[in-house]
Amino acid sequence: MIVNPLKYLKHAKMTHFAIGHFNIGNLESAISTIIAAEEKNSPIFLAITDKTFSYLGLEFNKTIIEIAKNSAVPIILHYDHGNNFKTAKRCLLDGYKSIMFDGSSLNYNNNIRLSRKYCQTAHLHGASCELELGHVSGLTKQNMFTNPEKIIDFCEKTKNDTLAISIGNTHGMPEKNEKIDFDLLKKINKITKVPLVYHGASSTPIKNIKELIKHGISKINIDTDLRISFTNGLEQYLKNHPDEIDYRKILGFASLKVKKNVEYKIDIFGSANRA
Questions:
Q1: How sure is the predictor about 141, in pLDDT bands with cuts at 50, 70 and 90?
Q2: Sign of CA dihedral 112, 117, 123, 126
Q3: Which region holds residue 41: left if phi is over 0, alpha if psi is between -120 and 50, else beta?
Q4: CATH number for the domain including 184?
Q5: At how many degrees (to 10) do helices 247-269 and 206-214 cross?
Q6: Residue 1: inside a domain, yes or no?
Q7: Of 50, 80, 181, 246, catalytic
Q8: Which of 67, 90, 98, 182 has its CA 20 to 30 A from that of 148?
């Protein structure tokens, strides 16, 4: 079933677990992720970006929505880093219950102006809206960390439902010697009751994941780790079966690797049996 994530995220924040956000790049990864969630009895975000839409087309929505509707667990269809307003509106009209606008590269006032527009549109369609304050860019760019002094003003003016923050995290694999600013996270968590989102959690150490959840992170985004699992699965199968030409077997093995990774993340995040 497709759901609005807000009540699940609020519950996650109150009881100290996180809901996994899993980016998909093809139909195989989408199905594998949903099956993993069903077997773990966990709510999940199933996230799609503009890159995926450019690969599969917007008509892919019809397929993924039908699959999500028939799932045995809550599925939050999510337009991730959705800076194309026309696409965001199309996703909402099609039945998505979550979108993200990423105005982190804009100046503060423009971020608020466009963020408000996305939030208002999402709310009109019974969906939630995630925004980003600061810019997820790693420890080396501390001037792009989330400024806690701006959070109250930002949230009041945009009416956002969730907030993606920058505390030393980076998209893709962790930077060498990556260090998360947990003191900043604690300060942010005290300032706002809005569920907090952590981008760039692929290969983040388990001890750090646990600490993030302890101090208010309610949604954790995974993309790169799933791509690695899928690619490694392809390489492994073709190495062991060099003459295989049945792409159903090849893709099926790669998809199984994705499924196992999603199950592993769900266990770490503590969302198993929370559906």
A1: low
A2: negative
A3: left
A4: 3.20.20.70
A5: 50
A6: no
A7: 80
A8: 98
